[in-house]
Amino acid sequence: MPEPEEELPEVYVxxxxxxxxxxxxxxxxxxGSCVGIAFWVPRLGLGALCHPMLxxxxxxxxxxxxxxxxxxxxxxxxxxxxxxxTPLGANRGEIEVKLFGGGDxxxxxxxxxxxxxxxxEQRGGxxxxxxxxxxxxxxxxxxKRGVNIHFNTKTGEVxxxxxx
Length: 164
What we know:
Blueprint: E1 10-12, E2 18-21, E3 26-31, E4 35-41, E5 46-50, H1 67-70, H2 74-85, E6 96-101, H3 119-131, E7 135-141, E8 147-152, E9 158-162
Parallel strand pairs: 1-3, 6-7
Antiparallel strand pairs: 2-5, 3-8, 4-5, 4-6, 8-9
């Protein structure tokens, strides 16, 4: 008889946050135009999820940002997670990166416009992973709807639930 599925702890990652775990966990977040970035190192059972809100760190802030402020930016969050994974035994070549979200979910009405929707965040995620020499193993970017993601750090699986 198969053993029942193990109940894993769940951690909700808020916008602008990053969370790294060494034990099997379900990491969750809700994405609209933001890009969620999942890191997974199968050999170590290491997983992380970040929910940055902006594509690139402004040059004038790059040297003075605290970690908590920096995690709001895609490029900073990718460098930070890769940097925090290395001391835990991860080799850059084995880190699996998965990108989600970046939807064009904002409604444009009247004089109020948000430039670029989620497209800048999408580009920032792709460029950041390539710049950090990390391989993107899965992605689901764009669209017109937000998504909830549930990242199982035990299996590396990411469940997407699209909003209607």
